[in-house]
Amino acid sequence: MGNNNLFATYSFILKSFEGILFIWSIVGAIALVLPSLNLPSPLSILIQKIVIVIALFMATILASRLAVNAIYLYSQRHNTTVSLTSLFEYLTKVIIFSIGFLIIIQSIGIQITALITAFGVGSLSIGLAFQNTLSNLISGVNIIVSGKIRPRDYIKFKNGEEGYVIDVELKYTLIKDIYNNVIVIPNRQIIDASFRNYTLEDSWMLLPIKIGISYDSDLEKVEQITLKIARKILTTVKGGFQEYEPFLRYDNFDYYSINFTVYLKINEYFDRLLITHEFIKEIHRIYKQENINFAFPLVNPYMGINEV
């Protein structure tokens, strides 16, 4: 069983070679038979360079596949803050292909010093032309490296937008809300925004539910019954933290009620919907059986036409 798990874990190494071994075989065969063909020297040199370019290009593709899959495996097994987002995958491939490109042109006799100098001079004008794109790109890198936002995190911004982080791309961060809509936010705005991450350290959270009861209620009885209901909900409803002991705290004397808050523990932020739903139904049913009255304002919300 252990060997099977090990093979499944590192199977990406074999998958990374898909298509590459076949091309290498063809290139190797051409390299072997080329000396025996007695081709003109310029043509033979040209074919040799083409063979070298193809072989090194396929090696670059292999290196990029191995690097991306290895980083993904490492982040999954060690739960690192640097997650394999689209942006991180793209940057990894860009670095490897850039190194591969320099090795290829060097191997066929082209001097890379002048090319690097030209690129350094041209990078300034490129940076000015794509200033907004580069700003979002750098912001995306900051998001990934900081580890404050990761795929599958549930975040809520100060302006009210909230949802699960899907991915961090070159310019945008994608967030899916509970209505299955995708919110597209520029990376630069996220860096400058205030937000709350509900799953940064741990996915569980306390769920406070406020209730108001009438002044003639027996507070000890209310506390016992409410906590009993809370324990039942946590153990029977999906999303509740079964080992947690819920607690209740009376808050204040209001105009029409004595207010208190019940604290329940849920596995993740989204579970609050179902837990709250079932808790309110059960509270309403049991309170009616036990003659515990909810408070409500003693005012007439409708003004009659003939009323003075």
Fold and architecture overview:
With 308 residues, the chain is of the alpha+beta class. It is built from ten helices and eight strands. It has helices at 2-9, 11-16, 20-33, 41-78, 86-107, 112-129, 131-146, 187-192, 219-236, 272-289; strands spanning 154-157, 162-168, 172-176, 182-186, 195-197, 205-213, 247-253, 258-266. The protein has a five-stranded antiparallel sheet. It is elongated, with a radius of gyration of 32 Å. It starts with a helix and ends in a 19-residue tail after the last helix.
Give me the secondary-structure topology:
Blueprint lengths: L1 H8 L1 H6 L3 H14 L7 H38 L7 H22 L4 H18 L1 H16 L7 E4 L4 E7 L3 E5 L5 E5 H6 L2 E3 L7 E9 L5 H18 L10 E7 L4 E9 L5 H18 L19
Helix pairs in contact: 3-4, 4-5, 9-10
